[in-house]
Structure formats: structure tokens, C-alpha cells
Amino acid sequence: MTRKNYIFTSESVSEGHPDKVCDRISDAILDALLTEEPQARVACETFATTNRVVIGGEIGLADQSKLSEMQDRIDSIARDCIRDIGYEQDKFHWNSVEITNLLHEQSAHIAQGVDARDNKDEGAGDQGIMFGYATTETDALMPAPIQFAHAILKRLAEARKSGEEPTLRPDAKSQVSLRYENGQPVEVTQLVLSTQHSDEDQTSEDIRAIVEPYIRQVIPDGWLTDKTEWWVNPTGKFVIGGPDGDAGLTGRKIIVDTYGGAAPHGGGAFSGKDPTKVDRSAAYAARYLAKNVVAAGMAEKCTIQLSYAIGISKPLSIYADTYGTGKVDEAEIEKAVARVMDLTPRGIREHLQLNKPIYQRTAAYGHFGRSPDADGGFSWEQTDLVEALKKAV
Question: Is residue 108 exposed (0-12), middle (13-18) or buried (19+ Cβ within 10 Å)?
């Protein structure tokens, strides 16, 4: 039986965190390539440190003559990302940072296992296991600690970018500890926020006075109490931030990207990967299925696991866990999800319309728990499979 009374903690990081700067650049490059060629194969990694960004990885285009043209755009794409995030500090400025582009053509040996040919459907881009999760504890069917850790940083970024809070800077981290009673979140016991700021004379108390009103805007009424312990910039000054303060790398915040540790993660990162890579697309599909299972009232919590092998189109296994909250047997859920969605890499991409430039927006504040966009972004957050699932069990 699932525990009902406990404290659980999740963290988030802002769009200006060094790792998230790298995720953003990698996904912006992916979007640019998908705009040119929706079937583009992309595996793009970014590294950032003081005054320097290094971009590497593989690109596969049907028309390889476009590759050199795209290479010429990489520098400006990266600078635009850094500028939009807000970095204009001495040792990491969008206009003066040195950018090294090491992207090259995709390996033919990888392509041969993925490309469809001889009437054979295309295979998965790699082996691996992917998990999706949903829970009734928030309206977005997400775990509350990660959902509100994201919400805090997103609100502070809005205040910074609008000019409301001119002393805040891009790099920040949040952490929310929630006390659960009878399986539902009721109180914030600990709240941690570390945010970069511009003035060395600003104290932790000064920063708390700035950020607290915004935090109270996004935390549900009654959750912040007299017992809540606040830890705002607990080490004191935080003026040197971003890649100047700590190096960044694509794909190092996978738990922030998913469920904040409240559910399993298969290990593969998302950013910079085109949707033939099941690390990304199958994780989106698993979330989509788990969310629809919960939205259909089949369970209060649900994890879906999918597994794949490189070059093989169909999933090797489908697993469901409802943590004792299921109204439908888990084996029946496993059969139902396979009936209502084609879980081959091509089937996932077509069902969720993933061959679109929709990925840069996922690079900060979580890939899940977001509202679907009119242009197809966050399509995996839709609950349009509810009726089909009910009929399938």
C-alpha cells in the first residue's frame, strides 16, 4: 500500500542555470533543423563555461547540401538563446562569448538501424527504457513538489524579464518540500530559493523581500504557514552565476525535466534529440498514456514503462503500475494502451505530431505538466484518449 503521510521534496532550476542554457541552445538548433526538414536527424550537445560555448553532435539531412548552410546559422542561434535568457555579464555575454561549432554528419551505422527500407518500418534510434507518470494531486496531473518548484522560477523569470525586478539575474534554483496527509499535499515545510542578483551589497534578507511576494502568488493558499522554513540565498551573495560560475552541459537535469524524483526515469536525456530518439518521443508517449489513464478515472496514480531496442520498431515491453489506486487491473491497462496508440517510433511521432519545431520551449520549467499549444507544442499533455481507453478495457 502506498504511504499516505510523508514529506517529499523536488527541485527545479531556471532557464539561466548553466545546464539549462545548454539545453536551450541544443533544442533551438533542433527546432531550426526541423523547420528546414521535418525528418531531420539531430543529436546536438552543448557545453558552456566562462566566455565559451561548444556545440557538437550529429546531423542527418535528406539533402546534405543544406548542412553547410545550416552550419552558418548555428552561431546566431546560440547567441539569440543567450540574449533571450538575459546574459550580459562580463564573462558570459551573448555578444562576446566564443562559440565553437563541431556539429557533423550523422553516422551511417546509426542511420542503417533507424531508417525504414525494404517495406520495414523504421526502428528505434537506440535501446532504452522510458517512463511516464501522472497523479491526481494537481490539476495538471503532476506531482505537486516539482510543479510548484517550476512555477516559482517561471514567475521570477517573468518578473525579471519584464523589468519589475531589475536586480534579479538569470541563474536560479528552487526546492520545495511538501507534507502529505492522506496522500494529498497540504503544507510546504521547507522552501529553498537561490537566485543570482546584481548588487553585492544585497543580503539574503533583501533577496527574500524581493522574491517572497512572487512565490506567494504561485503557491496554493494555506500551504505556506508559520511553520514553513524559508532558505533564500542561504550562502549569502550570489552575483557570479551562469556558465561563468559553473559549467553547463546538455542533459544534466533529467529529473528536473520530468517528475522531480516522484516517479522513475529511464536515464536518457531529452534536449537536442529529434523524435526518432525514443529517449525523448517514447518518454512523451508514456506521459501521454499515463495522464490519459488517470484522466479516465482508471487510477489516482499511474506509471507506464516502455522499452525499445535499436533498429526494432515495436516496443519490447509495456508495463503499468497504479500503486494500489487502480480501478482497472494493471494488465488490462497494459493491453488497452497498446490498442489505442501505435507505439512504434513512427506511430508516436505521427500521433503526437512531433516532427515540428516545438522543442526550444521545453528546455526550462519541465517537459510535463504544461498546457498544450495551438501549434502542437506539448501535444503529449492532451487527454484526448480518455474515451478510447474506457472502451478498450
Answer: exposed
Q: Quick check: 1 pLDDT over 60?
A: no
Start-to-end CA span in the chain (Å)? 24
SS3 209: helix
Half-sphere exposure of 358 (CA within 13 A, CB side): 22
pLDDT mean over 276-282: 95
pLDDT confidence tier of residue 340, bands split at 50, 70 and 90? very high
- For 215-221, the CB contacts below 8 A with 24+ separation are 215/152, 215/155, 215/191, 217/155, 218/148, 218/151, 218/152, 218/155, 219/148, 219/151, 219/152, 219/188, 220/148
Please give the model's pTM, rounded to 2 decimal places. Answer: 0.95
The pLDDT tens digits of the residues spanning 128-167 come to 999 999 999 999 999 999 999 999 999 999 999 999 999 9
Residue 236 grid cell? 549569502
Report DSSP letters for 331-342, one per residue: HHHHHHHHHHS-
Rounding to the nearest 10 degrees, give the CA dihedral for residues 177, 179, 183, 185.
Answer: -70
d(CA 196, CA 186): 30
Give the integer Cα–Cα distance in Å for 156 and 365: 12
With the C-alpha atoms ordered 206, 208, 214, 216, is the resulting torsion angle positive or negative? negative
Question: CA angle, corner 147, sides to 216 and 286, nearest 5?
Answer: 170
For 135, the grid coordinates are: 497523479
Phi, psi of 32 (to 5 degrees): -65, -40
Q: Which three cell numbers stand for residue 101?
A: 561549432
Euclidean distance between CA atoms 162 and 252, whole angstroms: 28
- The residues carrying an active-site annotation are 17, 19-20, 45, 58, 173, 238, 246-247, 252-253, 273, 277, 279
